[in-house]
Amino acid sequence: MLTIALPKGRLQGPALARFAGAGLVPDEDPGSSRKLIVPAGSRARFVLLKDGDVPLYVERGAADLGVCGLDQVLESGADLLTPIDFGFGKCRLCLAAPKESKLAKSTLSEAAELGRSLRVASKYPKLAARWFARRGVPVDLFALSGSVELAAVAGLADAIVDLVESGRTLAENGLVIVDDILQVSARLCVNRASYRLKVEELLPLLEKLG
Amino acid sequence: MDFAAPLPGTQDLLFDAARRLRRCEAALLGVFERAGYAEVIPPSVEAADVFGAEAFRALDRSGRLLALRSDFTAQVARIAATRLAGFSPLRLHYRGSVVRRLGEGPVHENLQAGCELVGAAGPEADAEIVALAAASLQALGLEEARISLGSTGYFSALARAAGASEKLAAALIDEVDRKDLPTLRSLCEREVPAGAAREALLMLAQPPRPQTAARELLAKASALAPSEDALAALRRLGDVLERTDDRRLEVDLGEVRGLGYYTGIVFNLYAPGAPKAVGGGGRYDSLLGRFGDPRPAVGFSLDLDGLVAVARC
Hints:
The complex is a heterodimer. By secondary structure, chain A is α/β, with parallel strands linked by helices. Chain A has two domains: 2-89 and 185-209, D-Maltodextrin-Binding Protein, domain 2, CATH 3.40.190; 91-183, Periplasmic binding protein-like II (D-Maltodextrin-Binding Protein, domain 2, 3-Layer(aba) Sandwich), CATH 3.40.190. Chain A contains ten helices and eleven strands. The radius of gyration of chain A is 20 Å and the shape is elongated. Chain A starts with a strand and ends with a helix. Chain B is of the alpha+beta class. Chain B starts with 14 loop residues before the first helix and ends with a helix. Chain B has two domains: 1-145 and 271-313, 2-Layer Sandwich (BirA Bifunctional Protein, domain 2); 152-248. In chain B, helix 1 (15-34) packs antiparallel against helix 3, helix 4 (152-161) runs antiparallel to helix 9 (228-243) and helix 5 (166-177) runs antiparallel to helix 6. Chain B has helices at 15-34, 72-81, 123-139, 152-161, 166-177, 181-191, 196-203, 211-224, 228-243, 304-310; strands at residues 38-39, 45-47, 57-59, 65-68, 90-101, 107-118, 146-151, 209-210, 249-251, 265-270, 279-283, 297-303. Chain B contains ten helices and twelve strands.
C-alpha cells in the first residue's frame, strides 16, 4: 500500500492526470470530496495537503511519496529523494527590485554597498538566505506570508525574492527582475526508507510516471 | 519552569522504554561478542579536533576547545591508532550516546551501538562487517529490513576520471544522493565532457537492485568504467557480494551517503516502520592516519532510537 501526498491548488489537476496515466485513479474526485484521505483502489491512497506541507509528510514517512514544487522542497530543507521532474507548474524564483533602484541598475555587489545590509522580503527566507550567502552579500532577510511585491513598493524592503510566472504583477508594480534564483517545476518526492523498503511497488510506478 | 522537560532533541527513558532499549542492546551485544568483537568504552568528552563540525563544542577554563562525542568511529580510530597501535586485526564494539548539532534544529542526542574492524583491508573484512550488520538486524527480528550497499570509492574514481573540481564533485554527490536524475543530467551535460565518465555518473541515479540482479548491474557499470580505479571499486563490490548471502542485501551504486571519511564500500540500513536509515557503515582507510597510525578499517553503527521503535525482540 502506497500513501501519496497530493497538494491542493494548481498542481493537483496535472498531478492527478499523471497518476491516472500510471493507472492510479482516486475512488472519489478529490476536488469535490471533503475527505482528506481518498483511496485509489487497493494499492494506494491519496492524502490531500497544502503544498508546503508535502515535504514534511514524505520526509517523516506519513506519505511514501508526494508531488511538490521544487521551491517548497528546497525551502523545507527536508531530506528526500526527488527522482522525477514532472515539468508542469513551471515558474521562476527571482530577485526583483524597483525599476529605479540602485539594485536594478547596477550589480548585486555594488548595490550591496549601501552602508547597511540589503533588506529583502520573501516567502522563501531559507532559499534566499542560502543564495545571498553563496554570493557573500549581507542581507537583512524577513519572511512575509503574502503580497511580497508590496514590501518593495512600500519601502519595507530594498528587494524581494518571489515566484514569477508571467512577470505581469512585477511590471504593474514598477518592479524588475534583477536575477534568477531557481527554475521551479513540480517534482516527485519519495521517502528515503520507502524507496528501499517498498521498491517492488514503487519502481513500476516510477517508471510509468517518469 | 522551562527546565522541567528534557531539551528538544533529548529524552528521558522510563521503565518499559528503558527495558526495551536494554533488551535490544543485550541482543546486539550477544551478536557482537559471538563474532569475536570486544567492547571499548570511550569518554563522552574529547578534544574537539577528534570530531567533525557537527559536534557540540565548548571551551574549558584554560581556553581549550572540547566537544561532546558526535561519532564513535573517530574515537575508536583514536584508540586503535594509539594504545592499540600495531595489533591487527582489531575487532571492537561500543555503545552509548552521541550528541550532534544538525542544521538549525536543536542539539540531538542519539543512542548508538556499533562495530569496527581495524587493520584488515580485504573484501573479506568488508563482507564480515556487512554480514555482522545483517546479523544485528536479524537479532532484532527485522527480517524485512534492507541493506543498501554502494561505494564512495567508486564515486570518487568517477569524479576523478571526469576531472571534477571539489565543488563540482560536491554538487554531483548531492544530486546522486537525492536520485535526482533530471538535475544530475543537466549538471553533467553542462560540466562533464561527454564520454564514459559522464555515462557512468548518470548510472548512479538508477534504482537499487536486489542481490540476485546486482551482478548484471555491476557488469554494465564495469563496461563503462572510465578508469582502473573505478573498475577496482566495482570489482571490490562484486567480491563483497560473492562473500555475503543475505536476502536483505541490495546494491545501489547511488548509495554515496555516509560520513565524510568513507573511502570504499558504504552501506545504509533501512527497517520497516522507520522513516529514515536506522544505521550505516563503510570502509575508512585514511581515518587512523589522522592519529598517526595509518591502517585500513571498516565498520558500522546502529541508530538504537530508530531500531528500538521497530524491533521485534
